[in-house]
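REVIEWER CHECKLIST
Item 1: Sequence provided? yes
Item 2: Single chain? yes
Item 3: Sequence as submitted:
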Amino acid sequence: MSAEEKSSDINSHFSSDVDEKDAIKPYVFLKNLSDKLDSLGVEVTGIERISPYRRSQNIFKQFITVAGLWISGCGGLTSMSSFYLGPMLFGLGLKKTLIAGMLGQFFGCLAAAYCSLMGPRSGCRQMVTARFLFGWWTVKFVAFIGIVGGVGWSVVNCIAGGQILSSVSDGRLPLVASIVILAALSLLNIDWGIRILLKIETFLSIPVLGACLMLYISSASKYKYLSLADSPDEDFATIKGNTLSFFTLCYSITSTWGAVASDYYILFPQDTPNIQIFSLTFFGTFIPTSLVGIIAILTGNIAMNYEPWSEAYESLSMGGVLGAAFEPWGGGGKFLLVLMFLSLVSNNVMNTYSAVFQLQIIALPLARWFRHLYTKELEQVDSDSSALIAAKHCNYNFNIWNSKDRLTQGFAASFAFACGAAGAAIGMSQTYWIGPLAKDVGGLYGGDIAMWLCMGFSGVVYPGLRYWELKTYGR
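Item 4: Structure as written out by the authors:
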């Protein structure tokens, strides 16, 4: 390890000996408490870079734990919930939902895998590496939107979890109370650092994925209701637009992991080959997402054509369909539903973990306090960032991660980000807004091409602007 790297790590870590003597003498007790929490696995380092000499050298163990994390995070109800929208919202038949859904999440996995490469190389959280693109100030806005996105997924998880518990209790447990239970369980994990987080996620991965796979068996008696036919209520143009929108939706299921992917690789050795990191992230997200996505599409298609399951979906959405599918198994089916419920807790823990570091990016003084004292109380950004990272795939001096005067000004990335947002606005198809270009590619509801215009606009604009910025400011 170079002398510069060691010096940078010492200067940036607030709990160093120099800081103890000169800056936090009155807080020796808190410092000792922080060290004790650190020894127990509680996260206390905040957004500081993890230098190579502080990382784990057990590469096999790291691969196993991160693989377990991806199985637990992707192989559960969070991923399943979006795949149900193909048949139940967009009215697509089995063939269209399978093709659009699997292709969409395949490309999303590629984006997430690419973003994860920054973890071992930098030792920095994903949003910290974004400083090298957006600069010191603009990245705060990007981090804020990242938090909003995490909150959005957590809300979806809480609602889905509420539906599951309500289904398990046969409606005796109110939906609101069920949602509160999931939120409370998620917040119990706020003290855990990345080492404990990885262990917990690995522990949950097998029962969660196993319960989801049991759904293939419990639903087998209803496969006769599967149909290739699209909804008869929609015309050809509308179905075409809905197929495109579903494809984009499924892309976002896995691509949004790119906003936090490298957070889970900061303990890997710096010289870990890129192909290993890329493969672990790609297959770690693609395989479990495919397994739960396919069964979600199958059971969703059955619900579109089988009246009892359709009524269950109308009553409790995904939770109602899953309850109906496991109903023949009695108490055993309810137990499997509870295991699947744990996947939502797992996802919320991951959202909370990364959101805390994004919050520290916004308000830097928070990085100097114990992480366990606060937590999150709470698709276009990831697409912009993916395009910009791809445009600037080069070597960085990661020792300047916390040097405001040495980081880029961020003008090029900020303007490219704005262009991407403009592309998203004219290409999105949502209930509150249908862009002019979206209207031209679909029928009544248009077709959602926001993601692709967002990446295209920002990816085309950025290289030239970055060249100008580098020539003008030298950084």
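Item 5: Key structural point noted by reviewer: Confidence is low (pLDDT under 50) at residues 12-20, 366-387, 389-393.
Item 6: Recommendation: ____
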